[in-house]
Every structure is written in C-alpha cells, then in structure tokens.
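Slack export, channel: ligand-projects

TW: morning all. Re-posting the request from yesterday since it got buried. We need the structure predicted with the small molecule present, not the apo form. The ligand is pyridoxal-5'-phosphate; the SMILES is in the block with the sequence. No rush, but it would help planning for next week.
GE: picking it up
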Amino acid sequence: MKTSAAIPLVDLVTLHQELEEELISVFREALKTARFVGGTVVENFEREFAAFCDVEHGVGVSSGTDALRFALIAAGVNPGDTVVTVPNTFVATTEAISQAGGRFDFVDIDTRTYTMDPVKLRTYFETECTRESPTGRLVSKRTGSPVTAIVPVHLYGQMADMDALIELAEQYDVIVIEDACQAHGAEYFSRKENRWRKAGSMGRAAAFSFYPGKNLGACGEAGAIVTNDGAIARRVCMLRDHGQSEKYYHDVEGYNGRIDAIQAGILSVKLQHVTRWNEERRQCGCAYDELFASTRTNVTVPYRPPWSKPVYHLYVIRTAYRDELQKYLHDVGIGTGIHYPVPIHLQAAYRGAGWKRGDFSVSEEAAGEILSLPMFPGLRLEEQRRVVEAIAEFI
Ligand SMILES: Cc1ncc(COP(=O)(O)O)c(C=O)c1O
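GE: finished. pasting the full token output, ligand included:
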C-alpha cells in the first residue's frame, strides 16, 4: 500500500521543466532558420562535447548504437572480424558489433565493478585465441576469425579498469573502442599516466548515447563519437551521411545516421548543466552509501575503486531477494529497475550461437541479484532515506 508520494526510478520531468524556456528557444531558432540538419548548431555541440570529454573530435550521430557501429567501422574493424565485449551490457553493444559486420566473443565482468575483468581478458587471449600461421594474426578459436577490437562498457556510470585493458590490447594489437553510453563525465585515474582521464578519452574512439534518460540526454534520440584520431572522425562524418564527403559524391556506402540540429541545440543547453547534475548524482551516491552503512539491510552497495570517479548513471545494489524486494518497493511506491535481467549471451536473439548458462557465471549471478534504485539529480535526501528504510523494513 502506498503511504506517501511515489519516488520514481528517474525523474525526467522536473529537470526539463527547469530548462523549459531555454529548450523551447532552441526550437524557435531552428524554425526561424529552417536549419534542421547539420549547420553551426551541430558543429558547436560537437566541439563542446569533445572538449567536455577532453578529446579533439566529436561527431554527432543519431543514437548511441550508431555511434558504436560507426566507431567500429571507422577504426578498422572489418566484416567477419571478432570483437570482444562483456555479457552484462545493453544489447546495443552486440547489435552494433554485428551491424558493423563483426562477430562477438565475451569475457566476463569483474565481480565488484561489473565491468570487463582484465584478468579474464588475459585468459581469453591466452587460452581462447591462437596465432594464425603464417600471418601471426590473433584468431578466436570459437569464431575462427581475427580478433581486432575490444569494447569495454563503462557500466552504470563507472569506467572499466582502462590501464589494464589498454595494456593487454596493446600487447595483443587490438583496438579499444569505449562503450561510454552510460558514462558522460565519468573519470578514471590512470596509474600509468598519473592523472585523471575522462570517459571517452582513453580508447581509439568512444561511443556515447544521448537517449533521454542518460546523464546527458536529448529530447529524442541522439549519440556521438569522440576520438583524438582525425582520420576516424572524418570517416565517421562520411558514414553518418551516406558516405559522402561532398554533396552527392559518395566515396563509400554509408548510412543515414546524422544527429538533427534541434537535438544538438538541446544538448548544448543541457551540456552546461551536466557537471552540476553529475555532482548531484555523486552526492546522492555517497548519501545512499552512508544510509546503507548505518542501516541493517545486508545488501551490497556499488563498489567504487580508488581509481574511479563514477557519475552514477545508476545506483545498483545487490541482494539475493531481489525479485521480492523489487515487488515490495513497487507496492510502497518506489520505482526500481534491473540493468539487466538477462545477460546478452543468454538472450533469445542469440540462441543458436552456442552459449549456455554457466559460460559467464559472474554476469549470470549478478543478473539475478542486481537492482537499480531511484537516482537522478534533484533526488532528495528524505526520499533516499525512505528508500533505504523501506529496504530495511523488507529485509
Ligand atoms: C551500454 C550501452 N550501450 C549502447 C547503448 C545504445 O544507445 P542508444 O539507445 O542511444 O542507441 C546504450 C543505451 O541505452 C547503453 O546503455
């Protein structure tokens, strides 16, 4: 039974109401000029977002899925190549690999961070790949094709352990493309470089989603690729625009994958607030940590390694009683989510590919126990207290 006002998993309404005038003026400007596709609004946003990620180039596209697909193609993943990612992600990660013409292998996640486990990646390279003779190319034993890239996913707003992953990628000569779709503004302390690095700045290229619920979200669909590699940026510009470098001159066959100017304008407005919103999310993350530490609930709270400054796209707890807890919270008016209930290798879409339960046990066990709690800028401490008290009552 509901006792007081509901607490949603995400509140997208308040945030947009606060910016209503600014957002509407973007639309008014677009109407005045009828510049709906391309133009300075798009170019400005691309420059601003690249600067936010500490990289040289940003290219706006129509979604995070397209961003990942174009990044893979532009970085040199060829049809048939094998790309390695994790099973605990949104399905778009593997869709993008397949749509780039690739095949995917998985390595399991780390138990505490839920991101790609570098130890398992090393084991994968050492035991599940061979060197093809006479080329010496690294080939996946499962797919029989060359392994050319890895896609670590910065899940829930926390970056994967990039130093370790990049070192392995260099050793085995594979490209690193970051799936940063959930990690706008997240940071990683590189022990190798002795400095903090932004999500999107460490791989050869990175993909971001601006799906409305993201830390930086459009009022519709959009995404971006960021990279320090000018050649990749130029290739992505062509791929998103039917392969043309000049109007009606098509050097390659591309896609209709552009960002529209209204979304780019809206994102420029919202980008000015993201650092503050991320800070609010971090405060909410710390508040949850403290509330759980002082309440007897027995749930596992998110692990934040010393090298990570996460941006809490999601605050994900873990408990063996997840389904019952979710139902209880729903009944008392608290919104939750599961990200994600079925690891990718067990999804119906990939039935027939040969994976089975037990192949990636860390992802599988997590999928049965994880629960995302309300998390958004503007979430109040009283609301967080109610969430944690409700969990304590249930337990
Ligand atoms: C990890 C991850 N990768 C890729 C995507 C795809 O982004 P989009 O929905 O913008 O295509 C998402 C979006 O939810 C995501 O969370």
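GE: first-pass observations. The longest strand covers residues 57-61. The mean pLDDT is 97.
TW: perfect, thank you
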